Amino acid sequence: MAEADEASKPLFAGLSDVSISEDIPVEGEITVPVGSPSHDDEYSTLDEPVKETILRDLKAVGKKFGHVMYPKKSTTLLRDWDLWGPLLLCVTLALMLQGGSADSKEDGGPQFAEVFVIIWFGSVIITLNSKLLGGTISFFQSLCVLGYCILPLTVAMIVCRLVLLGGTGTASFIVRFIVVVASFGWSTFASTAFLADSQPPNRKALVVYPVFLFYFVISWMILTFSPSHSDGATDTGP
Amino acid sequence: MAAVGDLQFQEFDDAENLLAANRDATTISIGDPNEKPTNQRRSLGNWSRNADSDKTELLAGQRKSAAFWTFEYYQAFFDVDTYQVLDRIKGSVLPLPGKNFVRLYIRSNPDLYGPLWICTTLVFAIAISGNISNFLVHLGQPQYHYMPEFRKVTIAATAIYSYAWLVPLALWGFLMWRNSKVMNIVSYSFLEIVCVYGYSLFIYIPAAILWIIPIEWVRWITILVAMCLSGSVLVITFWPAVRDDHRRIAIATISAVLILHALLAVGCKAYFFDAPQIEVPGLSGSIASGNRTVTAVKTH
């Protein structure tokens, strides 16, 4: 029973002694309203047709390809990062680099596994380097950017293979050299455009140099790709 | 509360006079930094006139407090700015007598960025230059089929990385062992030795590019110049650490450092770069592996 003391009525005095009298019923029904599926706010992606699922991812990848080909400072690549694009590019590049110089007894060009390892291991090392130097970019965002910026080099590889179909003389070498150098510059420029803001200001060169080396090595592998010959005929150029 | 008139400046006697009165009193002397006793010099290093030397000296004690499995522990080894890396590279190719590389440039802030990326660049520089040089040497020969010898990159990487890590490890262990026998004034930590070795390999990158020129004496002159420059940096760095030891051991250590340095250069040149001489057609199968026995078989 609450005893009200009128003389010295401190605040909340009534709360110090609260009891529930028996004539207040404390019982009832607790039911959870079950919402019908038609009022669901989330769109369940489990029920959509497979074509839509694949197309949505392909569109995202394609949109990022577009951003790489016309690099301007945008955060799209960083915000919605995904690793499908890099995987696709890496596998394509490794497959195309593998088909040449297949002399079985002498060592020749890089094998599929070697290209794969160089690209992924190189990207991981560069990302770790950037984070150790104090960069604010996350691990997978950096992998995403580095992988997507291989796109110009993959295009160069396709062009080189087409040019090599026409012959392996000095003219084809010069054409291939120009194409590879242009795409190397494009790749490096695109990746620095995306990565520049996340680096501490007085260490930008320290972060950009490994990226430069990475794309340089890939360009070298593309440039020195030579298709296998069945005979050791006269060969004046790579 | 004391009256104003009582607040007089109190003259204190000189330290000696006070000490004469009470011999057992504890004293604290705050003197000139250069007068600090010898046994503390090892941890404090030299006070130089650069502005950031104070900061690095103070921070040196705060680093490496994170556990070795955390990310922050390794971030401490990459705490360098662009201009610092460039300064260290410059210091590794310009040996100045009396200027110790470690004391002058590293100053308790050894970094792993330089050694790591200089070694990586050197691996690719040697592999690519070797490839180009072989192509130029065998240009025009009908039985030569160009191949990008990709396996050689792995071999180059193994050789250079083991040189950059195992030799400093051995040298550090040796110096620690001698330190227990003979008290040295100067001793280096393992990371500082790795740092010196990593930066001293920088001179071989332009040397490897110059080795593309298929003229034998140009290559040998390049090796000599590179060896002299970076070898003298190494000697100037490590001489203070061994000079208090027995004469013969000191000389032996320094010569071992120089010989290993030379061996790396000569070995790379021999393995990756074919000698620019005309080979016997029957040995065309071994051209790609670049062994030196070809030079013993001269056709003219």
**Oligomeric state of the chains?**
heterodimer
SSE order of chain A: HHHHHHHH
The biggest sheet of chain B, with number of strands, parallel, antiparallel or mixed sense and barrel status, is:
none
**Spans where pLDDT lies below 50 across 5 or more residues of chain A:** 1-7, 229-237
Low-confidence stretches of chain B: 31-53, 278-292
What share of residues of chain B is helical?
Answer: 55-70%
Give average pLDDT of chain B, whole number. Answer: 74
Please outline the major beta sheet of chain A. Answer: none
Distance between the termini of chain B: 108 Å
Count of separate DSSP helical elements of chain B: 13
Structural class of the helices, strands and pairings of chain B? mainly alpha
Query: What fraction of the residues of chain B are assigned to beta strands by DSSP?
Result: under 5%
How many strands of chain B?
A: 0
Q: What is the overall shape of chain B?
A: elongated
Fraction of residues in H or I helices of chain A:
55-70%
> Which sequence of SSEs, written as H and E, runs from N to C of chain B?
HHHHHHHHHHHHH
State the end-to-end distance of chain A: 101 Å
By secondary-structure content and strand pairing, the structural class of chain A works out as: mainly alpha
The rounded Rg of chain B comes to 27 Å
For the secondary structure, the number of strands of chain A is 0
